[in-house]
Amino acid sequence: MAKSVVILGTQWGDEGKGKIVDLLAHDVDAVVRFQGGHNAGHTLVIDGQKTVLHVIPSGVLTPKARCLVGNGVVVSPKSLLKEIAGLEQQGVEVKSRLGLSPACPVILRYHEALDLAREKKRGKSAIGTTGRGIGPAYEDKVVRHGLRLADLVDEARLRGKLEPLLDYYNFMLVNYFGQEALSVSEVADEALEYGRLISPMLMDITGQLHDLRDRGAKILYEGAQGALLDIDHGTYPYVTSSNTTIGGVMTGAGMAPGDIDYVLGITKAYSTRVGGGPFPTELHDEVGALIAERGNEFGSTTGRPRRCGWLDAVALKRMVRTSGITGLCLTKLDVLDSFSEVKICVEYEGVSDFPIGAEDWDRLRPVYESHQGWSGSTQGITDRSQLPAKACEYLDRIEALVGVPIDILSTGPERGANIIFRDPFGAS
Ligand code: IMP
Questions:
Q1: Is the CB of 76 under 6 A from ligand 1?
Q2: Is 42 tagged catalytic?
Q3: What is the pLDDT of residue 428?
């Protein structure tokens, strides 16, 4: 029986991970975030009420689950505190169940200012970031001068580090980006107040996870974004700044590969992307517009419309292999209901090596396989025998192309709208 399950997006994010984490979290001891930050937006619909989570693990709506944020997550204390307040207003107890690694890099006002200024400067080649300061915070970590959550609870340490940092960034903001300088004392005072509020939640997350694993506890690792946004394996530079593939669990939570029993890859029945960057199967016609409309494809963090296209089985297969995905969860099949034709990209014309960057990706020409669509609704179906035959053929073909089974089919936004062919926690 699997005790540690990882959930990863296999496309460009927004695959519906939040709902699946929530579904699998009902019986787990801990739900863990290990990369990304509040650029993520995991939407849950429970009893008709919609909740969007950004940094707090999606297990928070399961009272028994502890919610742990590993060292690989960049934390904006401002956004986190707002999220906690929002949930507590809805009657969800958060503070006593939330643990934050003191090693999490901190996102403060200057990271957001830099993110926005950089994007503006990039003009037409803007990445289309969420503007949340994610890249600049990871950059601070890699340059080795960034603040971590632990720094917010020690005034002398905080002021000592912040002064030279803001000296440097204010120079850039003013002289290079033509923006206003930020006040060191204001940023420091704000950060210290955040530190006071979050200090009870700081703890050794890796140590906790080692203990939980040793005790045979059930742990769910919740990925944010998707594999094609991975800083190393995605459509660089149109990517996020963390490892969204499996390695992120090891570095961002401090667990070993052998501590993972099952990896669930989430994929939509088609593809979407927000922001700029290559998207070989993107549809610029009425079919793409129909997918966007029926799938309600608008970003849950920024509200931006998502670009839509057919499923790319070449990229999916590569990401399945890269992350050692055990089984897939296919979401939003119902969006394709009653399409007369459904296509899957099965090859890139004349290309054998997988693309490594935007320039290669931009040159790709997808080769499609065409499938007859199905009539009738798949929405809310909980039994495979009720699925239209043509829909089953579509699922079978995806499994054959990608080489792993579809273990879960999500048939609607509600918690109960699924067909579970194999429970990841039941798998051995
Ligand atoms: P950043 O993560 O804000 O730096 O944005 C980098 C790229 O990742 C942009 O194209 C964003 O639209 C995309 N991105 C970041 N977070 C998400 C997400 O949760 N879902 C989908 N795309 C995302």
A1: no
A2: yes
A3: 67
Q: Which CATH fold topology does 109-198 show? A: Adenylosuccinate Synthetase, subunit A; domain 2 (1.10.300)
In sequence order, what are the residues at sequence separation of 6 or more whose Cβ sits closer than 8 angstroms to the Cβ of residue 343? 310, 311, 368, 369, 370, 371
Nearest to 134 by CA among 123, 121, 151, 146: 146
**Is residue 26 over pLDDT 90?**
no
**pTM for the full predicted model:** 0.96
When the pLDDT of each residue in the chain is averaged and rounded to a whole number, the result is 95
- Four-way CATH pick for 4-101+205-259: 3.65.10.10, 3.40.440.10, 3.60.15.10, 2.130.10.10: 3.40.440.10
The domains of the chain are located at 4-101+205-259, 109-198, 267-426
Amino acid occupying residue 38: H
**Pair of tokens at residue 296:** 């309600």
List the beta strands (DSSP E) in 313-420: 327-331, 341-348, 366-372, 406-410, 418-420
Taking the domain 267-426, which CATH number applies?
3.90.170.10
Whether 234 is in the pocket of ligand 1, judged by its Cβ within 6 Å, is no
Question: What does the pLDDT average to over 129-157?
Answer: 97
pLDDT at residue 263 is higher than 80: yes
Q: Which atom of ligand 1 is nearest to the CA of 9?
A: 20
